[in-house]
Amino acid sequence: MTYLTKPKLHHPELPKNKLGFTRRDYEGTVSTLCAGCGHDSITGAIIQACFELDIAPHRVAKLSGIGCSSKTPTYFLGQSHGFNTVHGRMPSVLTGANAANRDLIYLGVSGDGDSASIGLGQFAHVMRRGVNMTYIVENNGVYGLTKGQFSATADRGSKSKRGALNADESIDLALLALQLGATYVARSFSGDKAQLVPLIKGALTHPGAAFIDVLSPCVAFNNHEGSTKSYDYVREHNEAVNALDVITMHREITTQYDAGTVQEVKQHDGSVLRLRKIDAGYDASNRITAMNFVQERYARGEIATGLLYLNAHPRDLHDSLNTVATPLNQLNERELCPGNAALEKFNTLLR
Amino acid sequence: MKKIESVNDFVIKFANVNGSGSASANTLFAKSIMRMGVPISPRNIFPSNIQGLPTWYEVRVCEEGWLGRRGGCDLMVAMNPQTWEPDVAEIEPGGYLFYDSTRPMPQSKFRDDIHVLGMPLTEITNNAYSDPRQRQLFKNIIYVGALSALLEIDVPEIEKLIAEQYKGKEKLLEPNIKALHMGRDYALANLPCPLGIRVRRADRVGKKVFLEGNSAAALGCVYGGATFAAWYPITPSSSMAEAFAKHCRKFRTDPETSKNRFAIVQAEDELSSIGMVIGAAWNGSRAFTCTSGPGISLMSEFIGLAYFAEIPAVVFNVQRAGPSTGMPTRTQQADVLSCAYASHGDTKHVLLFPEDPKECFEHAAVSFDLADRLQTPVFVLLDLDIGMNERLCEPLKWDDSRHYDRGKVRSYQDLEAGARFGRYLDVDGDGITYRTYPGTHPKRGSFFTRGTSRDRYARYTEDGKAYVDNMQRLLRKFETAKDLVPKPERFDARKPSRFGVIYYGSTSPAMREALADLEAASVEIDALRIRSFPFHEEVIEWVNRHEHVFLVEQNRDGQLRTLLIAEGNVDPNKVTPVLHYDGTPITARFIRGEIAQRLGAFNVTPIKKTAATGGGE
Ligand SMILES: Cc1ncc(C[n+]2csc(CCOP(=O)(O)OP(=O)(O)O)c2C)c(N)n1
Ligand code: SF4
């Protein structure tokens, strides 16, 4: 796999935003994920949200961990600095970056393996510190990149591609984020752009810790044995040299439904997600109500989607650290180094 | 009975119970001697616990100025019944034992060859104070008062120190002075004042300052322009983070807004600490973390990322005795290899080895220039002995004409002017490439940082040639580092010598003393203090010039020796390890004993029989 740049031939009539950018200016390189992967739909939603918000792409710092989902920052905002860190530990790198320059927009992208397993600790702490960021988990319930093991968000009792039963309780990251003090918490589905794009826009403009759990089906690890579309079958019947590149084509799953209703979405593996969009009367300003709501719906086998909680006046990490308004990385030597005279004075205190 | 007689040259040790408030009284005692112009070197010897267990404070008083640990003890202030036996056993023959005789000890509990000084401390305090906490605290001041009479310490110096300590809390001043005199008067009236060992005013301290390596390193971070620190508590490095916060509050608060020109985060673990440092440094802040061995183990994956993705990160490792949790409150130099090669894959890192607090300050400041210049992690290797003990050293200095070296960074203007930008393009041939800070320019200079292989333009690739090209460039960069890191320090013997000794870090004071002793015994030996890794060319030349070299280190496996052999291509037969690793700071006695003995095996004569030989502690 190599890096493919997208041709930048702009159609002259492409609509432009206030900064004079077209949607294409918010794209990155061509995705190398499986065709039909939910993560690509999220990439599309991020591109649309940034375009519509008139964000200058270079003012965004996009960070991720490791996993299929964590690869996606290469596929959007080609003019932004990106950082693929290590597995599960994007939150700390993002925290440091934010501390150093509070003027950029921070977008963290992670997977459910990345955030709910190896990175659960860092996930928890970045939320409780109130780092000003948008943190998106592309949640598919499996480890995509390492080929289909259960992640910690997989439902208890669900079956893996290999037929194994998941005996462990699942972790609900949105519920955790609520409990840990995130000030903007939402859940959506990768295929529901109408819902997802505004949620991302809301998160990007929220001046505190914003978290969005996005259910994002994995096409590769739902093709079961015996199927002529299975990974093994295709490998056996295909001459391609790189097995990873020959996963069968699927269509991204898309859906649209009204607020207050339940929508059943059939995934590639045939399993069904029951998404309940919260209705207009829902009060998103109360953290406790939000937690109860999520748990009640879960007990009914439904997944609540939409903006679950919003604190419109959040405190962020810089508030708690009482840092100066100037980004730390822009302070000059005069502001940083006390000089020899101060040192001589200090010496006298040490005798 | 023999009586140790010595002015301005002795060792006194306080055996206390952790949490009894003795620390400040003991420091007061030590500092008052320093204020009399006599050099001291105190050491906290404390087990890994919080309260109730034994703790010792050892002060070497030495007019000649040797600051290493001498070994042995001439006067034991035995305030902890729990450790009575080993404490009494440690006293040198002819030495002194000072103890609380409220409940007198039978003769069988003493030794015949020491002088016993009993003072009913508890009785005196209980008569004078009714509050239990006061009783405990003032008891400490009372024994300091008694010692001032026994050792002839100037009372006004102690009074001045107490006044400084209680500045702004004058109410506490008076009772402390009273307690001091209570103890002093008792000793003058009832004990054989002065003892054979005592203090006499001298002029050997001068402008020297007295501070801990950790505090000095933290101040070096302030002067070096660090704006971000992330850390996770671990002995013996926590006091460095705490000192950084203190120094920052003093020096880095915006006078107009009272806002901080720094950010310090106590992370949830070491993984996060180094992750935050990497994030901040990627974004152009000077950032560091401080930890100890177990923290380095946890940070390793991230350190590899910083190495491969070429992000400046400064890591202070205040070493303690390992492996594993080892002896958490004891000293060693045993993380040399784990830092030099931290993380998986082929990595090599820059290491600095400060010898005293002054150099902790200097190396701390310089580490940020090095990290920025080389865009790589830099480790500053302190240890518990240097980090957590106050030590006398030359005053700290800063050259105001000095500027931070931020290394190769392309600015908006550079990019606008059309500077060619490829993140991993070796434009200058020194292996160091240009970077941009995120958000610099709307159209140019952005790149993707990753731990996976990439080409010169930061594009992901698994092409073998591109990978090798990158790895080779990283080696080139490491070569460049040789000339940038602090040079070694050479000490030539009076006459040309076939023999040399190498040492580094906190071994310095003991080594200097050992060398002087050996010289006095007509043993000529050259010395080289290594201050950094990669080794400067001069180090290898120096080793090759000598027929045989000793390498003194405080670890079991001769870790710097391994590094010298592996990276300097030095003949292993040429380098004899001299190793001390029981967790106590190395002593001059040990070094000169070991070297004298080994030189004997090389048929080196004459070695006068002096106190030098005999080694051991
Ligand atoms: C320390 C470490 N352990 C394990 C791995 C291997 N690894 C890479 S990605 C991944 C799981 C990714 O799963 P998830 O975050 O759910 O992302 P997805 O691929 O499903 O989008 C694992 C275990 C690694 N890179 N580093
Ligand atoms: S393996 Fe799954 S998560 Fe990874 S790219 Fe393919 S579909 Fe997406």
TrEMBL record, chain A:
<dbReference type="GO" id="GO:0016625">
    <property type="term" value="F:oxidoreductase activity, acting on the aldehyde or oxo group of donors, iron-sulfur protein as acceptor"/>
</dbReference>
<dbReference type="GO" id="GO:0044281">
    <property type="term" value="P:small molecule metabolic process"/>
</dbReference>
<dbReference type="InterPro" id="IPR029061">
    <property type="entry name" value="THDP-binding"/>
</dbReference>
<feature type="domain" description="Thiamine pyrophosphate enzyme TPP-binding">
    <location>
        <begin position="66"/>
        <end position="214"/>
    </location>
</feature>
<dbReference type="GO" id="GO:0045333">
    <property type="term" value="P:cellular respiration"/>
</dbReference>
<keyword id="KW-0560">Oxidoreductase</keyword>
<dbReference type="Pfam" id="PF02775">
    <property type="entry name" value="TPP_enzyme_C"/>
</dbReference>
<protein>
    <recommendedName>
        <fullName>Thiamine pyrophosphate enzyme TPP-binding domain-containing protein</fullName>
    </recommendedName>
</protein>
<dbReference type="GO" id="GO:0030976">
    <property type="term" value="F:thiamine pyrophosphate binding"/>
</dbReference>
<dbReference type="InterPro" id="IPR051457">
    <property type="entry name" value="2-oxoacid:Fd_oxidoreductase"/>
</dbReference>
<dbReference type="InterPro" id="IPR011766">
    <property type="entry name" value="TPP_enzyme_TPP-bd"/>
</dbReference>
From TrEMBL, chain B:
<dbReference type="InterPro" id="IPR029061">
    <property type="entry name" value="THDP-binding"/>
</dbReference>
<dbReference type="Pfam" id="PF01855">
    <property type="entry name" value="POR_N"/>
</dbReference>
<dbReference type="Pfam" id="PF01558">
    <property type="entry name" value="POR"/>
</dbReference>
<dbReference type="InterPro" id="IPR002880">
    <property type="entry name" value="Pyrv_Fd/Flavodoxin_OxRdtase_N"/>
</dbReference>
<protein>
    <submittedName>
        <fullName>2-oxoglutarate oxidoreductase subunit KorA</fullName>
        <ecNumber>1.2.7.3</ecNumber>
    </submittedName>
</protein>
<dbReference type="InterPro" id="IPR002869">
    <property type="entry name" value="Pyrv_flavodox_OxRed_cen"/>
</dbReference>
<feature type="domain" description="Pyruvate/ketoisovalerate oxidoreductase catalytic">
    <location>
        <begin position="19"/>
        <end position="184"/>
    </location>
</feature>
<dbReference type="GO" id="GO:0047553">
    <property type="term" value="F:2-oxoglutarate synthase activity"/>
</dbReference>
<dbReference type="InterPro" id="IPR019752">
    <property type="entry name" value="Pyrv/ketoisovalerate_OxRed_cat"/>
</dbReference>
<dbReference type="GO" id="GO:0006979">
    <property type="term" value="P:response to oxidative stress"/>
</dbReference>
<dbReference type="InterPro" id="IPR022367">
    <property type="entry name" value="2-oxoacid/accept_OxRdtase_asu"/>
</dbReference>
<feature type="domain" description="Pyruvate flavodoxin/ferredoxin oxidoreductase pyrimidine binding">
    <location>
        <begin position="221"/>
        <end position="470"/>
    </location>
</feature>
<dbReference type="InterPro" id="IPR050722">
    <property type="entry name" value="Pyruvate:ferred/Flavod_OxRd"/>
</dbReference>
<dbReference type="InterPro" id="IPR009014">
    <property type="entry name" value="Transketo_C/PFOR_II"/>
</dbReference>
<keyword id="KW-0560">Oxidoreductase</keyword>
